[in-house]
Amino acid sequence: MTERDLVKVADLSRTFDVSRPWLNRVIERREKEFLKAVQNVSFSISKGETFALVGESGSGKSTVAKMVVGLLAASGGNIVIDGVDLGDKKHRARFGALRKRIQMIFQDPFASLNPRWRVGRIIAEPIWAFEKGLSQDGVDGRVGELLSLVGLDPRDAGKFPHEFSGGQRQRICIARALASKPDFIVCDEPTSALDVSVQAQILNLMRDLQDEFGLTYLFISHNLAVVRHMAKRIGVMYLGSLVEVASPRDLFATPKHPYTRMLLDAVPDLEMTGRERMPVLGEIPNPIHPPSGCAFHPRCPFANDRCRAEKPGIHEAAGILTACHAVEEGRI
Amino acid sequence: MTEPVLSVRDLQVEFPTRRGNLRAIDGVSFDIAQGEVLGVVGESGAGKSITGSAIVGLLDPPGRICGGEIRLRGERIDTLAGEAMRRVRGKRIGMIFQDPLTSLNPLYTIGRQLTETIITHLPMSMQQARDRAVQLLEEVGIPGAASRIEAYPHQFSGGMRQRVVIALALAAEPELVIADEPTTALDVSVQAQIIAVLKRLCDERGVAVMLITHDMGVIAETADRVAVMYSGRLAEIGPVREVVKRPHHPYTSGLMGSIPTIEGRAERLVQISGSMPRLDAIPDGCAFHPRCERAFARCHVERPVPESVERSQVACWLYDEETRTLKAAP
User: Fold this and answer.
1) Splitting chain A (332 residues) into consecutive groups of 10 residues, what average pLDDT does each group show?
2) Of A4, A75, B162, B212, which is most buried with the most CB atoms under 10 A?
3) How far apart are CA B260 and CA A37, in angstroms?
4) How many CB atoms neighbour CB A202 within 10 A?
């Protein structure tokens, strides 16, 4: 672990128990069933960097985000943020100080704001929670500053969330996330509920704030173009595992893993070059009964017997991490 | 010139409310030729879906068409009464909606839903209809169609369900298919599959398609022509290449610039400040003028109508009336 790493995630796993109720299991003679939402995911994020996780629905990217902010407990592995291990009981005393430095922005700005609270109270809540002893005037002043920071009017503090459009609400969410002066913000699909022109406003705002405050982002998205625009490094997830981690330049110019290639080929192309595409084969398998070996092998044109039997580990070559036997053996 | 499959002229849709009539669609005109895919793009609230609903006569009350006309192969359909319109819908116009789960009946097998549609609109026996249903399911790429015909919608994945919906839309051999955000609820890899199926089938049958979406990428890949909507009006309509590569309307150029692409990393995305006006507060003149960097006096008072610029039609005062080229900045 280098000095600059703010967040270090190692072998993170999460399993959900999706069994039927006990009585059903007894009557229908069913086994307990488990869903491995995240399996052995490792990555680290340096200070001031944006690390992005992309993947399709069900790939486990949001589960990772929830575990990193501590909304979900990990079933295995550990998360170390600025030297504090989130799962280690001995570090519990240092949690409180760490808590205020981690914030989250959610996907749906309609669901993540309390409709019965005024915007001022929504944004002030983290300030009240973390900076006890601040006067009412002091808090109001901070709320006003935060609102102007995200491009809203300080007078908007007296309004209710329903008086704002989707983009403005997402700005309120960002202001709330910034209220506790965090270093690290986890953004779970922050723009996927927004129109493109509003998305551009929010993405630009997030980058400006990053430059101004030296924020570190964990950016979760299903949109490859958005991720390319925002991230310094990108991790591609498939069925709970990281299959490739690379810089945007490498990932988009020379994708290594067959899944990354397929995903890139599937993105509709604004350039209309009419390039040959790799057709998308099959669908994401059921995560409760994932395929043996490499989870991607049933859809992979390069799969062989080894892929069907043995789960590939992460392998590094020229700064690009891939989990693929074919890439490791130099077959593709 | 052959007659277009669909011809919409000066369509107006309004929603009466206590605070007056809200004009959701204002003077929209376009044609779709046989075998052509017209993409309709715009942000939420631009009136794309309402245009689609107005064409098939499924506007939610109290919304109503209050002006203009809609013709299907020259025959007016906006004035048809309930039962007559019902025969056009499904038979001559097929529909595909965003959410495949809500457009299928969860209590019927997909085979029953398909055969019901086929028998209602085509003179076929039960057995013929069933064979045709299997054949349709094979065409949309459902593996093991003959065995899956007895399955219920919940037994299919999202992508497979959307294939069933496409089969259902094409079941009665329609002349026009209206696809309202057909891939928005799907993942990119599934989206690519669905778009490919839709494009192939419509090509094979020469069906005209109105593809409503907010995803410019999908439009660029699929459509022949694009209509860009803003505040219930057409901002620009033209060949897809021209609209995407050399947009004429300032709104279209802003929209195109605001889309991050996978091809390159622009340091900063183009930003259109503000947001689309609410229906009860559409500004005078050009609806886009408060957000337009190039707006001048005329834009504030007089509403532009679509006029030809190169091969497109553009509603913007920046183009000279005589030469139809961009005016020099005043």
Assistant:
1) 77 90 88 88 92 89 90 89 82 78 88 92 91 87 93 91 89 93 92 86 92 94 90 93 92 91 84 67 81 90 90 87 90 81
2) B162
3) 29
4) 25
pTM score of the predicted model: 0.85
Q: Which residues of A touch B216 (CB under 8 A)?
A: 196, 270
- Cβ-Cβ contacts under 8 Å, B258 against chain A: 196-197, 199-200
Q: What is the dihedral of CA B77, B81, B87, B89, to 10 degrees?
A: 50
CA B23 to chain centre: 19
Strand B6-17 and strand B64-72: the pairing is antiparallel
What's the rounded Cα separation, in Å, for the pair B40 and B15? Answer: 21
> Looking at the partner chain, which of A167, A270, A284 has a beta carbon nearest the beta carbon of B259?
A270
When CB atoms are compared, the residue of A166, A195, A228 closest to B262 is A228
Mutate: best of A280, A288, A296, partner B, most B CBs <10 A: A280
Q: pLDDT for B77-100, tens place per residue? A: 888 888 888 888 888 999 998 877
ipTM of the prediction: 0.79
Is residue A263 within 8 A of residue B189, CB to CB? The reply is: yes
Fold of A5-101+182-329: Rossmann fold (3.40.50)
Dist CA B252 CA A126 (whole Å): 40
- Which residues does chain B have within 8 Å of residue A262's beta carbon, measured at their own beta carbons? 189
Interchain CB distance below 8 Å, A199 and B218: no
Distance separating alpha carbons of residues B307 and B328, to the nearest angstrom: 18
DSSP string over A44-59: EEETT-EEEEE--TTS
For residue B39, what are the β-bridge partners?
B211, B226
Q: What's the rounded Cα separation, in Å, for the pair A295 and A287?
A: 9
Q: Cβ contacts (< 8 Å) between A279 and chain B: which residues?
A: 196
- Taking the CA of residue A270 and the nearest CA in chain B, the distance in Å comes to 5
Contacts with B, A 227-246, CB within 8 Å: 228-229
Mutate to test the interface with A, among B155, B156, B188, B253 (most CBs of A within 10 A): B188
Q: Taking Cα atoms as reference points, which of A115, A182, A110 lies closest to residue A146?
A: A182
